[in-house]
Structures are given as C-alpha cells and as structure tokens.
C-alpha cells in the first residue's frame, strides 16, 4: 500500500470552532492511525482478520469510552472529542472504528448508564484499558430492523437466569470477553444482561466470507441454557428504549466516522488527479474530474457542519434520536458516494489495494446497513416530521 500522505480538508475553517483539547485529541488519533493502522490495515483486510495489536493503541488514545468519566477508566472527554476520535479512526478503516464504537457506546455506555455501581467498577476500567473486549447482541437471524420481535429469552432459576437464543452479525463477538445481550424475560420485557466468556452453553462462532469490514471480526452469539448470575442483569432501564438508547450514542459516532472515510477518499483522489497525466496534462485539469472533486468537498463540508452542530446539541442534551438518524444517514450515504466517485478518478488503480478507496467503499456497505439501515433512518425522520410512524 502507498505511504499515508493524508491531509485533512477543512474548507470552511471548522478548526476555528474546535478547542485546543479537541485539536490535541484529534492529532493524537491521527498520528496513531498514520503510524499504527495505515501500514498494516490493507494486509489484515486482505486476509480478513482483525488486527489485535490495535487494541493497546486504541486504549492508549482514549478510544474506549472517550466520554466515560475518568473515575471508571474512561477519558472523560466531551462529545465533539468523541466524534473526532471516531472520524480519525474511520479515516484509517471503518472496521477499526467499529471495534471502538462497540466497546464505547454499545458496551461501556449501557454498563455505565444502566448498570449498578458494582458492575461499573468490575467492568468499565478493564474495558477502557482493552484488557476486556466487549460486544453487543441485539440483532437476531429473524429480527434485524425489527428488534422488538426478538425471541432470545431468559427465565429465573434460583440465584441465576437461564438464557436461550441466538444473535447474528455481532461485531467483535469472536474474541469478546463480555457481551451485553438483549433478551426478553418471562413477561416479554426486554432487558440487558452481561454474559461472560466461559459461561457454560455460551459460544461465539465467527461469520466468514464477508466482502465488507474484513478487518473487523463478526460472529454469532449462541446461548444454550446459559446460567447468567442475577447480578449480571442491567437494572437501570428495560424495554426496547434501553438498547435504542445505546444506538443513539453509537450512531452519533458513526455520523462523524463516515466523514473520516470520505475525507480519506477525497484526499487520495485529489492527490492522484493532480499527479496523473493523460492527454498531456494532469487529469485534475479536466472539467469532469473537477466536477467530481468539487462536489466531494462540498458534501464533506456539509457533513462536517451537520456533525459539529449535532455534537453541540448532544452536549446541551438537545439531540434527539431523529437528529442523530439524519446525520448518520446523510453522512454515510455521502461517504459511500464519494468513495464510488473517488474510485473512478483513480481509474484501474482504484480497484487495487495500493490505495484505500476500494476498501473504504466496501466497508461503507456495512456502515450503511448496521446501526439502523439507510431506509430505517429515513423512516425515523419521516415519523418525526409527520408524527405518523410508517415502520409497520
Ligand atoms: P418504537 O415503538 O418506536 O419504540 C419502542 C420504545 O423505545 C423508545 N425509543 C427510544 N428510547 C430511547 N432511545 C431511542 N433512540 C428510542 N427510540 C425509541 C420508544 O419511546 C418506545 O418506548 P415505550 O416506553 O413507549 O415502549 O419501536 P419500534 O419497534 O416501532 O421500532 C422502531 C425502529 C424501527 C426505529 C427501531 O426498532 C430501530 O431503530 N431499528 C433498527 C435496529 C438497529 O438499529 N439495530 C442495530 C443493531 S446494533 C448494530 O448494528 C451495531 S453495528 C456496530 C458496529 O460495528 O459499529
Ligand atoms: P433487514 O431488517 O432484514 O432489512 C432488509 C431490508 O429491508 C433493508 O433494506 C431494510 O432497510 C428493509 N426494511 C426492513 N424493514 C423495513 C420497513 N419497515 N420499511 C422499509 N424497509 C424496511 N447487530 C448487533 O446487534 N450488534 C452488532 O455488533 C452488529 N454488527 C454488525 C456488523 C456488520 C458487519 C453487519 C453487516 C451488521 C451488524 N449488525 C449488528 C446487524 C445490523 O444492525 C443489521 O444488519 C441491521 O439492523 C439490518 O438488519 P437485517 O440485516 O436483518 O436486515
């Protein structure tokens, strides 16, 4: 793969809106991605393997629980910093950002928000340091967009619960130490349970043959009469709103992350277009290529503004699920379109692993599907503005 020469576009001088802390956090993450991810990511993606050596670095840059208080091992940063970290990691690879998103927003967030003090103390510091890795089990083979139909269930039996069922498409499951699992109790109410590797009847087979997110490990969670101690139930919230609350946080991170993938594609295509000579001049001098590049920077700039304002709203406690859906949907679609256009600017070279664009493009096919599909986010906006949910 070519050396990482990335230079971040900032067409509307958005850096002026960032604090010194934001810039420091961003540059630490950017440097880490250049040093530790860019040189290895293509090889791991080609062999469809998660680079476990990245775990230590992710922990060191504060990517595991950026906004979780320092008392529990988190970095205690604000939401803009969280977004910038996700942006920079996804600039390297969406699969690595997935690992950080899941650990932070889908494992640490529910334990912090819905867990007991004992659960926080037991799990959060180890998750922040990467000693424990986590995963989040909501999706089932027959219930993806419609998680309220889940069939995974638990019932009381003495001092523990007996958990049965299966989850599919679970990021990090093949190596996770803990899984935050959503299941129905005997009354059909959804609750979160912390399931730990080694519990009898709990297995995590890996899902193979993915053409997308190849550097992220995806798998199943299978529960065959797993005895989960009662102290592993998250007592703070139940009902579908509990997992959806975690998704709000993760989708917010993705709205920023997708900008990173788009920036990398744009920067690569711009550099290539200025260097590649055809018909006696750089292809950047042809109007058709300029159209592509000009539209890319316009869309990136709009996405940056959307993410920044969403971050402000989030910090003021005013960001709604529908606000977050709009940004996730817009920014991921923006990124995938930019990846496709950038790929064309590179001609034949664009399909090779010499450049990051094709990998980003394939990764974004997962990003546009997980954490709520493109269609579901449109329906969330539609329900919000009309007051009429059209999901069913
Ligand atoms: P609905 O009737 O709308 O809501 C049920 C209850 O939940 C409440 N609620 C929320 N609460 C907190 N935060 C939110 N964001 C909430 N959204 C809804 C709601 O008020 C209601 O509460 P109550 O008290 O009245 O019961 O539910 P619905 O069944 O009609 O579904 C709505 C829909 C379709 C939007 C929802 O099911 C949905 O978002 N589906 C998409 C599923 C999804 O996003 N799955 C993601 C799985 S995790 C993943 O993909 C990780 S990838 C990670 C990586 O690798 O980065
Ligand atoms: P379906 O729900 O079957 O949707 C199929 C199509 O139908 C989509 O186009 C959808 O938009 C459309 N559709 C569905 N309902 C409607 C409707 N009401 N109106 C109009 N159109 C509709 N899940 C987890 O729990 N944890 C994870 O860590 C996780 N990681 C993932 C990693 C990867 C790589 C992938 C690909 C998925 C992951 N997922 C995870 C699952 C992901 O959240 C689901 O794939 C997603 O929610 C969609 O569910 P589905 O695949 O079952 O598609």
Structural overview:
- With 392 residues, the chain is of the alpha+beta class.
- Helix content is 50%, strand content 14%.
- It contains ten helices and ten strands.
- The strands form three sheets. The chain has a four-stranded mixed beta sheet, with helices on one face. The protein has a four-stranded antiparallel beta sheet with strand order 2-3-7-6, covered by helices on one side. A two-stranded antiparallel sheet has the order 9-10.
- A hairpin with a 2-residue loop joins strand 2 (153-157) and strand 3.
- The N and C termini lie far apart (46 Å).
- The model has no long low-confidence stretch (mean pLDDT 98).
- The structure holds 3-thiaglutaryl-CoA and flavin-adenine dinucleotide (FAD).
- Residues 102, 135-139, 144-145, 169-171, 213, 218, 366, 369-371, 373, 375-376, 379, 391 line the site of flavin-adenine dinucleotide.
- Flavin-adenine dinucleotide (FAD) binds at residues 102, 135-139, 144-145, 169-171, 213, 218, 366, 369-371, 373, 375-376, 379, 391.
